[in-house]
Fold this protein.
Amino acid sequence: MNVLADDMAIAIVFAITGWMLKTWLSHREMKGLSITKDGLATSDDRLARFEQAVEAIAIEIERVRGGQHYVTKLLDARAQPLLEGAPVPARR
């Protein structure tokens, strides 16, 4: 019975050691992937360009929305006489 307990203790120690080694190696690998100060500067430049692109897209979307609003108003004004039963003005 004593031999079984010793074998289990050894297996547990090896398992814990293996887990710690795996954690340490993966931490080292992830540390190598972290952004350096040089990489951070280029990342900031890319983020600034991305922000400018998103802002330009938002402005264009607002222009399109304004155009759609204008066309909708025109179509609504043209359809009002039809809804009220009044005669439709002749086309030019």
Summary: The first helix runs from residue 2 to 33. The radius of gyration is 35 Å. Residues 12 and 18 are 10 Å apart (CA to CA). The chain has two domains: 1-34, 36-84.
